[in-house]
Amino acid sequence: MIAKILMDNRKQDATLEREHGFSMYLEMENHKCLVDVGATEGFARNAHKLGIDIADVDYLFLTHGHADHVGGLPFFLRKNKKAKIIVSEHALSQKYYSSRRELKDISPKIQLNFSYSRFIRISVDTVLEKDIRVLHNENSDFATPKGNSFLMKDSGDGLMADDFNHELLFCFGEKEQMVCTGCAHGGLLNILHTVKKKTALPIKTVIGGFHLLDTDDMNQYESTEEVEQIALALKNDYPDTMFYTGHCTGDKPYNQMKKILGSKLDFFYVGKEMIIE
Length: 277
Prior knowledge:
By secondary structure, the protein is of the alpha/beta class. Helix content is 20%, strand content 27%. α5 (224-237) crosses α6 (251-261).
């Protein structure tokens, strides 16, 4: 399969757009897929420049309900008339907020009264195709990202800590699998443990944000030691897995992990192509 990053916080090509968001195109043997659609329609403009026709996509997978992953959905629905849209039953029915620096609404601004029949709302683990599985993270043996602490939701009873009941994991591949983590709000190690427990297939590739943020003057996130422990666990428990990360993974945590994982870890950016054999 071939994966191309359509939207990310980082870019290397000046002709492409970047934003705080994530979108990835995935071309498989029998399917053309998107994972998330960024914060705006910028993902589609990048797709056009990269030679990808959004109208040809068969599946759109939405990892969770935050606006930086689903904000481009209205544009996608206008341009694509056939794709099935895979989403948690909770993702688009709750309002989301971030209190990082100041209280901010990070809910998608989406009206679903049209094309609602195209949505497949996931409530239980589901095998969509012989090479596509949708899972819920159910492991809590490891710590969740400290950056989760400023994320909240309102499902109708006032603000509460976001429990990420709207987050889904997507596994692609028939004999070996590529796991897309979205933002890994459930914790990268928890997610991989869940995939190992629920599937019998080896994890060949992991693509997505790790939600390990750069500490700044206002907020303290994972310490150097904590980041190193995560990297060591990945190296020891998943020695044959290739990891690609970006979006919500900061430069400092990435560099700390890179020292331990070496060639098994790489940054992605807008326009990056990854061939998964």
